[in-house]
Specification:
Layout: H1 4-17, H2 19-32, H3 43-63, H4 67-75
Helix pairs in contact: 1-2, 2-3
């Protein structure tokens, strides 16, 4: 059984140590509309967007990223 610590370490490895990880995370941020106002949309669409945003927020939480790091990834500044 996977422990919480192992899970967090796995997320950190994939999204912070594998070069493509931040590219994928940036795409997830964009696709979820993380930095956008939802606006007027159908309830089903709002529910879907909020679900995807929650998943991205979960990943950000596991990675322990601060706001500056999130913004850097979001605008495409990849840390080497």
């Amino acid at each position: 059984m996977t422990t919480q610590k192992q899970l967090v370490e796995s997320y950190r490895h994939i999204f912070m140590n594998v070069p493509e990880g931040q590219v994928v995370l940036r795409d997830m941020m964009k696709a979820s509309g993380l930095f956008q106002v939802t606006g007027v949309r159908a309830p089903e669409e709002v529910q879907h967007l909020e679900g995807t945003r929650d998943m991205v927020r979960r990943i950000i939480s596991f990675l322990g990223l601060d706001d500056e790091q999130v913004m850097k990834i979001g605008i495409g500044v990849i840390d080497e």
